[in-house]
């Protein structure tokens, strides 16, 4: 019995020794590049990283505007009197000198011939301003004609942004009527004077092409591009740290966190331009940086946006 117990103890010691032999690294060898020793892995901070990218960065302002006919003409009667009838409806296309309405200038005790109201230009009837039977005068318009084959957008810019708006700038237009499409337009006119009541400046934008499905009177949501930077080195805004008046971030190199002071520029839509201090392609920490120190060991658990394996 005692002999069997001795054999068991010898076998156990042999197995333990063999396990220790394989766990202990050979003398003089170091962990390979990008790897950490077991004790370092235990102390390493888990972080997520993303590569700094080179992008086109656009600054913009958002506005709302009205889609209108590029040219609109108000039509007036030649005489005062009672509007007898309209010969057209909203949406009708009319030619120059075509009769649009009739006005009866007769008064009690005096009878006059009917006076026709003729179109001064060709266009589409966009709005009728009075009803048959109303009293009209030569100084008040009775309807509007517009060129609906050429549409523009009229918008107002807050005083805060007026110096950022110039003719020729590109804008992207969306509407509720055509929600799955974005139309391109350009600033065609900038008014030189602000409205003192609203402290805003009027601008007009012309569509690059006549959009299908867009009509005068619709509301336009406008993203007006005021600045465009090509090949800008950008990082997520979550990677930027500002403390004690200094702006910096952490990059990962050889499994170590390197504190890197940077100069930032335009920040838009969750991205920040790095003007100085970082190159495209460097691995930037986006999560876990509050636990980091310069030169400290880190362990990446995946890039931002990726699912953990």
From TrEMBL:
Location of the Multidrug resistance protein MdtA-like barrel-sandwich hybrid domain: 72-139
Gene Ontology CC terms, in alphabetical order: efflux pump complex
Annotated YknX-like C-terminal permuted SH3-like domain residues: 232-299
CusB-like beta-barrel domain segment(s): 153-226
GO molecular function annotation: efflux transmembrane transporter activity
InterPro entries documented for this protein: Beta-barrel_RND_2 (IPR058792), MdtA-like_BSH (IPR058625), RND_pump_MFP (IPR006143), YknX-like_C (IPR058637)
Matches recorded under Pfam families: Beta-barrel_RND_2, BSH_RND, YknX_C
Superkingdom per UniProt: Bacteria
Keyword terms, alphabetized: Membrane, Transmembrane, Transmembrane helix, Transport
Family affiliation: Belongs to the membrane fusion protein (MFP) (TC 8.A.1) family.
NCBIfam families, alphabetized: RND_mfp
Protein's name according to its UniProt entry: Uncharacterized protein
Organism of derivation: Marispirochaeta aestuarii
Taxonomic lineage: Bacteria, Pseudomonadati, Spirochaetota, Spirochaetia, Spirochaetales
